[in-house]
Amino acid sequence: MSKPLKQIHLAAHFPGVNNTTVWSDPEAGSHIEFSSFAHFARTAERAKFDFLFLAEGLRLREQGGKIYDLDVVGRPDTFTVLAALAAVTERLGLTGTINSTFNEPYEVARQFASLDHLSAGRAAWNVVTSWDAFTGENFRRGGFLPQEERYSRAKEFLATANELFDSWQGDEIVADQETGTFLSDAKAGAFVHTGQHFDIEGRFNVPRSPQGRPVIFQAGDSDEGREFAAAGADAIFSRHATLDAGQAFYTDVKRRLAAYGRRPDQLLILPAASFVLGDTDAEAEELAKEVRRQQVSGATALKHLEFVWNRDLSAYDPEGPLPDIDPDVDGTHISQGRAQVRMYRDPLATARAWRELAAANNWSIRDLVIETGNRQNFVGSPATVAKTINDYVQSDAADGFILVPHITPTGLDVFADQVVPLLQEQGVFRADYEGTTLRDHLGLDTPGLTGP
Q1: Inter-residue contact 391 to 7 (CB < 8 Å)
Q2: 214 vs 208: CA distance, rounded Å
Q3: Which of 288, 342, 401, 451 has the fewest CB atoms within 10 Å, measured from its CB?
Q4: Which family does it belong to (predicted)?
Q5: pLDDT cut 90: percent of the chain above it
Q6: Coil/strand/helix, residue 341
């Protein structure tokens, strides 16, 4: 007997902090004005997506001491945006990335519990750590923690937040109208936590939220990150979106769950994925090439090369050959606050490999950055893209995808109108919401009053 078809989970990432967005497109809109967020969220809800996802930028990135102006010009506060979106949506989950390195458990738990109440149980928290001192300069806790300490703090941060979420053992505290005192006062959010990173005691002032706790996401890919997710996350925001890499990641993370007394279905694997649609596969392929060249302008290509070379390359022609000088591996890095800096741990080896690729293919600087950078994950007609997504999910390369359109805020519309109906026809994606909370959408258990 064949196993039943898995149901696909879909979400939408508002792409405000990466170079996926084609800023030069006439349809590109503001990444600050609320109308952009509202349009994006309403489209996702119309398509019956599980949730909307917001990344976080805690400092404007710099290159060569100047604001890096090629991909983002600011980032509004996550909680403010999600709270506003709660008022213009009814079922869509609201997921925010909040840093565990520079915040405090009481404050973050209070904000997420409040958001869960405001949205009637649709809040989710993507727990991340911060790796760079550059971002840390914005906070009292300057600098940064070594990786093992970052995850140690993150684990205790999440555990402490869960203690706060669970500290209310009833739905509400009732006031005695005659005496003015509270009944069942002993249940009203009392907590005591003593640990390596946090030593706090008091009463949590937000009653237990509709989901018990917000859904917990994790985005780290290191071994420590995978263990952190297996121990306490509900879903992983993964970057492994090819079939082979997705299956390997899926298998590795799911097998870790048993050590924590968890079932495979208690942790969802949701890679980020971009897409380009056309009337035919050939048309989509041509459009994808055009989109990629729009995403990587000549200026962007030079800036990307500077991540590796750690030199000012503004004098080079992006349509010309790669620099014949070697990367500077001794000086302070000219890029600040960019995750790409960590991706090239051996700049000299990377430069050699790139020169060989460019020579073999007669690539310019811009060609190289386009060909070696992130590619669109799903390219084709609506039928092709729907089939590919379903194949990935049914073959355990993912439980679904967090889609990142290249146009904001309208880029999700075509997927909602042309791909989602095909998935619904195949019986692998909901025709309507069956529950009210994000945990309902994701098929996750609701935590009990006293434990996970």
Answers
A1: no
A2: 10
A3: 451
A4: Belongs to the NtaA/SnaA/DszA monooxygenase family.
A5: 60
A6: helix
Q: How many CB atoms lie within 10 A of CB 168?
A: 24
**16-43: buried (b, 16+ CB within 10 Å) or exposed (e) per residue?**
bbbbbbbbeeeebbebeeeebbbbbbbb
In angstroms, the CA 65 to CA 328 distance is 16
* Per-residue pLDDT tens over the stretch 207-263: 988 998 999 999 878 888 899 899 989 999 888 878 999 999 999 999 999 999 999
- What are the DSSP calls for 70-129, one per residue? TT-S----HHHHHHHHHTT-SS-EEEEEEESSSS-HHHHHHHHHHHHHHTTS-EEEEEE-
CB-CB contact of 268 with 442 (8 Å): yes
- From CA 217, how far away is CA 444, in angstroms rounded? 12
Burial of 124 per CB tally in 10 Å (0-12, 13-18, 19+): buried
| HEC string for 375-436 | CCCEEECHHHHHHHHHHHHHCCCCCEEEECCCCCCHHHHHHHHHCHHHHHHCCCCCCCCCCC
| Residue boundaries of the structural domains of the chain | 9-280+376-442, 297-372
Amino acid identity, residue 398?
A
Domain 9-280+376-442 indexed as CATH 3.20.20.30: yes
How far apart are alpha carbons 88 and 73 in whole angstroms?
25
Name the pTM for this structure. Answer: 0.89
Buried b / exposed e along 394-423 (16+ C-beta atoms within 10 A): eeebbbbbbbbbbbbbbbbbbbbebbbebb
Are the C-beta atoms of residues 126 and 96 closer than 8 Å to each other? Answer: yes
Gyration radius (Cα) of the chain, Å: 23
Per-residue pLDDT of 126-180, as tens digits, reads: 998 776 777 777 776 555 666 668 778 888 999 999 999 999 875 444 545 555 5
Counting residues of the chain whose pLDDT is more than 70, the rounded percentage is 87
Cα 347 to Cα 95, 146, 329, 333, 343, distances in angstroms: 35, 22, 7, 12, 9
Tokens of 68: 């890096």
pLDDT at 413 over 60: yes
